[in-house]
Amino acid sequence: MIADNILTEEQLIQQATEVLMSKLGLVETLRFLALTTRGRVESVERHRAWQATLDGDAFCDQVFHEDPEA
Q: What pLDDT, on the 0 to 100 scale, is given for residue 44?
């Protein structure tokens, strides 16, 4: 692809939306666009939530295969 043919983000969004609308119609296009955002937790928030429930010592023992009785 030649650099002159690369669309700006605005052009890409506009053209992609037009294609979706022409092939799927308004309701299905909106459903499709909502799929990527519905119920997703941002990755940093998800990681922090996981860390909050983590037993650090047990995790390190498991990862590094350390015997806690050694």
A: 80
